[in-house]
Structures are given as structure tokens and as C-alpha cells.
Specification:
86% helix, coiled coil, DNA binding, UPF0335 protein A33O_09059, GapR-like
């Protein structure tokens, strides 16, 4: 009988913990949706002010990388462009 109570209690605790994790993920997903909408609004505002949003997105992507990673990527792009006669 004691083993049944222990198992039931453990199941209840695990279920409660699982529910808490799921609820945290759901809140974070909602936050992510809100942030994504905010980012879209900023890009729309930039576009309305005459900025090239494709170029801005490229700059944002580049700024996430460290200098060595950017240089390596740029060197590879230059190499591929040269191989294709684009320079």
C-alpha cells in the first residue's frame, strides 16, 4: 500500500513539474511571437523611411558574427565569385 502512495505521489509531482515546464514554454512562445511582430514593425518603419531592409537584414546577420567568422565568410564568397567570373 505504501508503494502505491509513493508511486502516485511521484506521478503527481512529475505531472506538476511537466505542466510547469509546458506553461513556461507557452509563455515564452507568446513572448517570441510578440517580439517577432515588433521586429516586423521596425523593418516596416525602416522601409517607410527609405532604407533597404534586405541590406539591413544582412548587416544584422553580419553583426551577430565575430570578426574572424565574418572575414572567413567574406573570403569564401570572394573565392566563389572569382570562380564564377563575377569580379
Amino acid at each position: 500500500m505504501a508503494d502505491d502512495i509513493t508511486t502516485e505521489t511521484a506521478d503527481t509531482v512529475a505531472a506538476g513539474q511537466l505542466r510547469a515546464f509546458i506553461e513556461r514554454v507557452e509563455r515564452l512562445e507568446e513572448d517570441k511571437k510578440t517580439i517577432s511582430e515588433d521586429i516586423k514593425e521596425v523593418y516596416a518603419e525602416m522601409k517607410a523611411n527609405g532604407f533597404d531592409t534586405k541590406a539591413v537584414r544582412s548587416i544584422v546577420r553580419l553583426r551577430k558574427k565575430d570578426q574572424a567568422e565574418r572575414q572567413e565568410e567574406e573570403a569564401m564568397i570572394d573565392l566563389y565569385k572569382a570562380a564564377l567570373g563575377m569580379e
